[in-house]
Design goal:
By secondary structure, the protein is of the alpha/beta class. Strands 4, 5, 7, 8, 9, 10, 11, 12, 13 and 14 form a 10-stranded mixed beta sheet that branches. It has 2 domains: 97 residues, 2-Layer Sandwich (Enolase-like, domain 1); 244 residues, TIM Barrel (Alpha-Beta Barrel). The N and C termini lie far apart (45 Å). The chain is 39% helix and 16% strand.
Length: 379
């Protein structure tokens, strides 16, 4: 069997799907994760196509290694392209042998994966109301965004004390609403300076957050100091694009949870290696998953077969870009806060036909966020 063509499909607000075609008629499906740069990633895939035509798609490790090492330059666009191709090759191999991907990775250790869902709000009362609604829907874990209030001109001017006070009010309201039988995680999206994040971590510890995600930008020394300074579990790594970044983080710090993204960290091939490195350190894995059905299915195949899986991010339609139930021919099965691991061949899912026509690509490109004084802020 030989690779004959690589097809890219842009769809929705920020999806880029990859199809690897073969001369045997089998097609593998993947997804790419550098979602502000999906058009660029599609071009990178077609540049890589020159290396792939005529190769045996069963040689996944060889292809992943070759694409990672044959070019002078690296970065999120290149890594996302490799990741999408890698996921598609695993899907194809599973279909070839008629088994789920997890069977090719050592077999499953669980039948279902616990999930958490995300939400946003503005006031403590709104946070409490939304959290309780999700609890009543059967979810046992949630993650909320701390948010970043803006004035009428779109600028953010919170002081140190205001951030600390606001974050405590948010979590206190949520905890009071849902009680102590629900796990609550906090998404900070790199929105604080180290001093702010350390103080907030100390203040929030009495409410026992599940994890404190990306409180500061990706800086190894600053993150290590923060982890050592707070008594709440820290989760990070969603923007890492290779094995070495995870190795450096886990070697230098006492990070509790790592967040590899199958669609940008190197695909399922890298995900299994990252999980193995983490297992030896008793670090647990919370796969990052802000994208579509293929990303979700790739995460679930990894979740099925790694002992140190913690919980799975499950995207919901908070901004009109995640409609997993309508983007797949057969939706995922969710019950009591768990999602069933698909057991069909490969990824075990199929996209709807003509997804790019039903959900035309619009792109999502971020924005400049400014402090009150006009300077740029991390988000």
């Amino acid at each position: 069997m030989k690779i004959t063509k690589i097809e890219t499909i842009l769809a929705g607000v920020r999806y880029l799907f990859v199809k690897v075609h073969t001369d045997a008629g089998l097609v593998g499906l993947g997804e790419c994760g550098a979602w502000c740069y999906q058009e660029a990633t599609a071009e990178a895939i077609h540049a890589m196509e020159h290396h792939l035509i005529g190769l045996d798609p069963m040689q996944i490790e060889y292809i992943n290694n070759g694409l990672s090492r044959c070019m002078h330059f690296r970065g999120s666009v290149v890594a996302a392209a490799i990741s999408g191709i890698d996921i598609a090759l695993w899907d194809l191999k599973g279909k070839y042998f008629g088994v789920p991907i997890y069977e090719l990775l050592g077999g499953k250790v669980r039948d279902k994966a616990r999930i958490y869902v995300n939400f946003k709000a503005n006031t403590p009362d709104e946070f409490a109301k939304k959290a309780l609604e999700l609890k009543n829907q059967g979810y046992t874990a949630i993650r909320y965004s701390m948010g970043h209030p803006q004035d009428k001109t779109g600028r953010c001017g919170e002081s140190y004390s205001q951030i600390v006070f606001r974050m405590e009010k948010q979590l206190a309201a949520i905890r009071e609403a849902v009680g102590w039988d629900m796990d609550i995680a906090i998404e900070c999206h790199r929105g604080m300076r180290p001093a702010e994040a350390i103080e907030c971590g100390k203040v929030l510890s009495k409410y026992h957050p599940y994890f404190y995600e990306d409180p500061i930008p990706d800086n190894l020394s600053a993150m290590t100091k923060l982890i050592d300074s707070v008594d709440v579990p820290v989760a990070t790594g969603e923007r890492f694009i290779n094995l070495m970044e995870f190795e450096d983080l886990m070697s230098a710090s006492k990070v509790a949870y790592i967040r590899p993204d199958m669609c940008v960290a190197g695909g399922i091939t890298a995900g299994k290696k990252i999980a193995g490195m983490a297992e030896s350190r008793q670090v647990y894995v919370i796969p990052h998953n802000p994208l579509g059905p293929v990303s979700t299915a790739a995460c679930l195949q990894l979740d099925a077969c790694i002992p140190n899986f913690e919980i799975q991010e499950y995207p919901v339609d908070d901004h009109g870009h995640c409609r997993l139930d309508t983007e797949m021919k057969q939706p995922f099965e969710i019950e009591n806060g768990y999602i069933k691991i698909p057991d069909g061949p490969g990824l075990g899912i199929d996209l709807i036909d003509d997804i790019d026509k039903i959900y035309p690509f619009t792109g999502r490109y971020g924005s400049f966020v400014r402090h009150e004084d006009g300077s740029i802020l991390d988000r």
